[in-house]
Amino acid sequence: MLNKSKLNSSFDCSALPEKVLQFGTGVLLRGLCDYFIDKANKQGIFNGSIVVVKTTGPDVSDFTSQDNLYTISVRGIEGGLLLEEDIVVESISRVLSTHTHWDEVLKTAENPELNIIVSNTTEVGLQYHEEDVLSGCPDSFPGKLTAWLHRRFETNKKPLVVIPTELIVDNGKILKDIVFKQIESNKLSGDFKNWVTQNVQFCSSLVDRIVPGKPNAEESEEIFKKLGYKDNLLIKAEAYRLWAIEGENLEDILEFAEADAGVKLEKNIEKYRELKLRLLNAPHTLLCAMSYLSGFDYVKDTLNDVLMEKYITILMLTELGPSIPLDVDLKTTQRYGREVMDRFRNPYLDHKWISISLHYTMKMKMRAIPLLTNYYDVFGTVPQYFARCFAAYLLFMKAVKLEDGVYYGQREGEFYPITCDSAAYFMDVWATSDCSHVINTALANVELWGTDLTKLPGFASNVENHLSNMIHLGVKEVASALNVYA
């Protein structure tokens, strides 16, 4: 089993002061935030450890039995080259449970060297709950944070930075608003409120790294054999990593940012959010049906097809990149696009297209349609590759049966689930199997898209042309033909 005796280095995390309080033990925090701090410590930059707070149960033995150590198996492509790296993360000093160690959690507020709080309690965690935050351990994370800040105020009053990493836009502002609502509802003092206002900086942040968690049993055994020890906390992560943190004058506190270019300290992180949404999430959405109906089950399989890779490259760099509704220079979008392509082709990740189709219509509306309308604003013409992807999406949404409340489409004689809130709507739309009816009805649905897509010059006719060709010739044939049907 992994423990300190297995390490060859002289580095000792226990000798470092505790500078970070982390709410959450999930794989994303361990594979990204704790990784960055560990890297900075080993470079002699940050020189601080993390107190991790577990909120899901009293048992912390999975950490203590391994001296709070764990291994990250980084597997992916970086700079066009395969990367395999196994890193023992040594940045955690101790793990406390709110169920059994709440007094110890509060006592960390008295440590003047601890000036960073990080959280990932899922999107559900950033919600207000009416509760007495000073009577025992509060139920909600914002309640726990308010109680901790109150202990800080009562003891040393040292300034600090709070960085939520929950996948919500403006997560820092949202958390701050909830904390102030807790202060008001609990009738805490005006002096405390003023102290929080002046001394606690809530920073919105964006995290981006695929951390699937523990590999399957077979892969884990292979890694353990290579490492020479077993690790019950082993996690797998891709090579790409990003932690964009929004705020001002953060460099002196967040010193760990120097250790890795993946940490970005910016006054505004909207650029990173837009790049991720439009050049990672949107391509996933647009290519999902095109790839799946072409016979590819996994994202990496699509990238291994020469013609499909060419299709994706053109879509991303000539249509999606220039359509980002934000002033981002071409070099930035192209560099990010190449990084995304490396992530898509990662041979170590089994990312299924059918999984990406969850909530398909909502994703199409939120991620892709703004790019379509902005493309028209910029170029005034039809984005042909986008149009083909949209045609494939409509074909994917053609349900052929309803069984036990689940709608199913069909690919090469096999059924697949359509896990989308609009599945029933599209089953009705496809009842006539007439392409023209499907196109004109679905594209004109303002409730689905927020706008009437038939009003975009040439878009409906092009989608109809591509959809008809897909039905008669095959989806992959239309995608592979590239400019033939444009």
UniProtKB/TrEMBL annotation:
<dbReference type="InterPro" id="IPR013118">
    <property type="entry name" value="Mannitol_DH_C"/>
</dbReference>
<feature type="domain" description="Mannitol dehydrogenase N-terminal">
    <location>
        <begin position="19"/>
        <end position="250"/>
    </location>
</feature>
<dbReference type="InterPro" id="IPR036291">
    <property type="entry name" value="NAD(P)-bd_dom_sf"/>
</dbReference>
<keyword id="KW-0560">Oxidoreductase</keyword>
<dbReference type="Pfam" id="PF08125">
    <property type="entry name" value="Mannitol_dh_C"/>
</dbReference>
<dbReference type="InterPro" id="IPR013131">
    <property type="entry name" value="Mannitol_DH_N"/>
</dbReference>
<protein>
    <submittedName>
        <fullName>Tagaturonate reductase</fullName>
        <ecNumber>1.1.1.58</ecNumber>
    </submittedName>
</protein>
<feature type="domain" description="Mannitol dehydrogenase C-terminal">
    <location>
        <begin position="268"/>
        <end position="470"/>
    </location>
</feature>
<dbReference type="InterPro" id="IPR008927">
    <property type="entry name" value="6-PGluconate_DH-like_C_sf"/>
</dbReference>
<dbReference type="InterPro" id="IPR023027">
    <property type="entry name" value="Mannitol_DH_CS"/>
</dbReference>
<dbReference type="Pfam" id="PF01232">
    <property type="entry name" value="Mannitol_dh"/>
</dbReference>
<keyword id="KW-0520">NAD</keyword>
<dbReference type="InterPro" id="IPR013328">
    <property type="entry name" value="6PGD_dom2"/>
</dbReference>
<dbReference type="GO" id="GO:0009026">
    <property type="term" value="F:tagaturonate reductase activity"/>
</dbReference>
<dbReference type="InterPro" id="IPR000669">
    <property type="entry name" value="Mannitol_DH"/>
</dbReference>
